[in-house]
Each structure stands twice: as structure tokens, then as C-alpha cells.
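WARN retry 2 of 3 for item q-0093 after timeout on previous attempt; input resubmitted unchanged.
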Amino acid sequence: VLTERFQGTTIGDLKHRVLVPAVNYSTGRGQFFKTPHHPTFELDHRMSIVDVALATAAAPIYFPLVRNDRGVFADGGLVGNAPGLFGLHEVNTFLAPKQNALVRILAIGTMTIGATVRGGASLDRGFGKWRGGLFDLVISAQESSVDYMLRQSLGSNYFQIDDKATPDQSKDVKALDRVSIGATNTLKDRGNHAAQRALGDPFFEPFRAHQAGAPIFYHGPAYSGEAGQRFHAKLDTHSRASWTVGA
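OK item q-0093 returned
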């Protein structure tokens, strides 16, 4: 299905800046596939969208690991299911370093169900009892922690669109792997409710009114004309011997 939709599209073909988290199981580290919006991002633009999508979605227990030209990968949710902090770091480190830039983060959630334990449950939990619950706990704890930190750091410049399922609806959402009618209806209904609530919130207005400027890409098919040429000219003048720059 991914191949049918995206065909041979690569990260370098994208028109907006993108950061996609995954876990590189070959190195044991988080890996972040990015558009070439910084001069040092020279490799990822060659990656196919299909390979990146499979890598970031290879959820343990649910899907197999994915191998591509860059290694073996597992789900990006293990390192960044709520990737707002990565976006903040990207701006402050690569896009606008030491500029005290105004940053707004819009987080669109997935109605994650908080993973908790019942009061009378056994505390001795081997794999047979954990199963997919361990992955749910990783996601739930991560999302709540990132949400708390971004609210503290950005205040009204952070806005989250998400919704909480009722206990009955939680049963529907947990059945999503079977694409049940109940799960589909619950997600649609709660999504519409979350959107309606956001549209009526005055703190959402700056996000609606924002007009993004055209990004600058330094490599690949979307190489950005004069801005990219100035960068390449600077490299040619100062670093001819030590750099190989691909456009």
C-alpha cells in the first residue's frame, strides 16, 4: 500500500522540513531521518519515503523489524512517540541557533490510552503478562512527560490537540488492530470533538494564522537556488580540500 501511494518518492522530494524518528537496532541508538534543511544533512534525502515509513512504524510485538540500506530499524515511538522536544531542539540547534527564536509547537495526539496497573494485579510480570502492555506503557509515560515539559517551557506557545477515551471507548480503540467498526467510529467521533474544541480555543488562533516561509534545502532535488549556491560557494572558497558536497 505504501509503495502504491508514494511510489519512488524520496525525502529529498518533500516540500516542507521533516524530521522522522526511528530506532536504529544496528547501532542501538535513535535515528532521525530529515530533509536536507541544514548543510550537514547530506544522506537522508536519498531515502525512499516507503523505507522511512516502514522503519518508523515497526512497532515491537505488532510488526517485524525493518532492514534497509541504513540498518535494521524499530518503531520511532520507542524514542520519540511525542517528538515535540526533537522539533524544539532542531530549531534551536540547526535552524536558528543562538537567535532566541519564537517557537510554537502544535502537537496532534493519537488518543493514547494511559497504561496503568490494577490495584490487585500481580507485581510479578514476565513476558506473558506484559506482552503489548509494555509498549503501551513506554508510549504513555513518554507522551505525558513530553507534554508536561513543553507546557512548562513554552506556555501558550505550545498547543495540543488530543482527546481521552472513556473506559468503554478504550475497549474499541484497543481493537484498532482488527480495524473494527467500533474502533473506526470512536476515532472519528473523538477526533471531530477534539478538532471542534481546538477551533473554539483562542490559544489556537496563532497556529491557524501562521504562514510558514519557504524552507531552504541544501542538497537533493529541492536544492534551494541562491541560498544553496551561497552555501556551496562558501564551502568552495574556504573548505575545498575537506568537503564533498552533493547537490
